[in-house]
Amino acid sequence: MKLVPARYRKEQALTQPAPWIPPVDNLLKDSTDGSALGSLLHFYCPQLLSLDDVRLKENMSLADRLYNLQLIQDFCKDNLNSCCHFSLEDMLYTSSTIKV
After folding, report:
1. Is residue 82 within 8 Å of residue 76, measured between CB atoms?
2. 95 near 28, Cβ under 8 Å?
3. I need a labelling partner for 5 at 20 to 30 A (CA). Which of 18, 31, 34, 39 fits?
């Protein structure tokens, strides 16, 4: 029996585009939407938090931001012995209340 190399159409060979992960320039400002922290948690624990679950957008709505922050709180509760002691409001509005 002769093995024949598989031929793929060009469309089948294309992979998904890389997700947009926001850069972290200012820790207080850039952590309020949860996308950077969610991406970081996925990087270290991909089996516990899928990157598809994290909302990664350049322009995040309030609902998207709350979703990511709730996802982080649930991750901490389930996997890190409830180490997140901040409320959603604390994480969401931190950058506007703390002056550095």
Report:
1. yes
2. yes
3. 18
Helix axis angle for 35-44 and 62-79, nearest 10°, is 30
User: Which of 54, 79, 48 is CA-nearest to residue 68?
Assistant: 54
Is residue 74 within 8 Å of residue 81, measured between CB atoms?
Answer: no
Q: Which of 26 and 62 is assigned the larger pLDDT?
A: 62
Phi-psi region of 57 (alpha: psi -120 to 50; beta: other; left: phi over 0): beta
What is the per-residue pLDDT for 89?
A: 82
Q: Are 53 and 64 in contact (CB under 8 A)?
A: no
Distance CA 97, CA 45 (A): 31
Q: What is the pLDDT of residues 47-78, one digit of tens each?
A: 999 999 999 888 888 899 999 999 999 999 99
Q: How many residues does the chain have?
A: 100
Taking residue 72's Cβ as centre, other Cβ atoms within 10 Å add up to: 23
Of the listed ranges 30-34, 59-63, 77-81, the least confidently predicted one is: 30-34
